[in-house]
Amino acid sequence: MNNQVRELRGERGWSQAELAQKLDVSRQTVNAIETGKYDPSLPLAFKIARLFGRSIEMIFTDAPRVVEPEEE
């Protein structure tokens, strides 16, 4: 599952530790979610969505992530 957690966190200038504290999870959990190694539980996904003021579908997707080629 792909997600926008890293981008949303970065927009707010929060560290992984700060986001983890707001979500009441470990920094390692935030890192695992951001890297796609862990899919959050539904209650945690709702908590993340509420924190960022977005719907779950706007943050999490099962579609492949499209990586734009770097401009030369």
Automatic annotation (TrEMBL):
Family annotation (Pfam families): HTH_3
Gene3D superfamilies, per the entry: lambda repressor-like DNA-binding domains (1.10.260.40)
Molecular function GO terms recorded: DNA binding
Top-level taxon in the UniProt lineage: Bacteria
SMART domains: HTH_XRE
Keywords linked to the UniProt accession: DNA-binding
Domain HTH cro/C1-type: residue ranges: 5-59
Segments forming a coiled coil: none
Protein name per its UniProtKB record: Transcriptional regulator
Source species taxonomy: Bacteria, Pseudomonadati, Pseudomonadota, Gammaproteobacteria, Lysobacterales
